[in-house]
Here is the input.
Amino acid sequence: MDVLATEYDQIDWGIVGIGVRSVDKSISTVLQAQGGLYTLISKGSVETDINVRIIGSIIGYIFAPDEPERALATLMHPDTKIVSMTITVSGYDIDMTNIDIQHDLQHP
Here is the structure.
């Protein structure tokens, strides 16, 4: 997305990240301090094949546990066109003793 914005001068959009895990709070702090900028380093198969770019497509980051209303308002805002979710490995963990899981298993 950052490449598209750069190549086609699309400055009227951006990415707002929303974190929900405790580790995401530090990401929020760092991104805010850096104005949403971060560095992408790509390495090729040859040691000298290195490409470094500053990515600027993140225009905001919300730590949802601290600002749940703002997170929901951002998700529901008419200007929000895409909602993409990343589920980490720990998000797939299923506690078979959980009563909600047991209920779902008994009532498919």
